[in-house]
Amino acid sequence: xxxxxxxxxxxxxxxxxxxxxxxxxxxxxxxxxxxxxxxxxxxxxxxxxxxxxxxxxxxxxxxx
Length: 64
Fold this sequence. Notes:
Layout lengths: L6 H16 L3 H15 L4 H16 L4
C-alpha cells in the first residue's frame, strides 16, 4: 500500500507542530509566511526547488 502526501502538506504539518510546541505569537506566523513568499521570488528559489526535488527523490528511491 502506497500513501502519497504532498510535500507542502508535510511541511505545513511540521511547521504547525513547531509553532505549537514553541508557542509562537500570531505575528511570528505572519512573518514566517511572508518570508516564505519573499524567498520564493529571489534568486534562491531555483536552488531551493532543486534541493527539495533531490531530497524527495532520495527519500522515495533509496539506493538508486
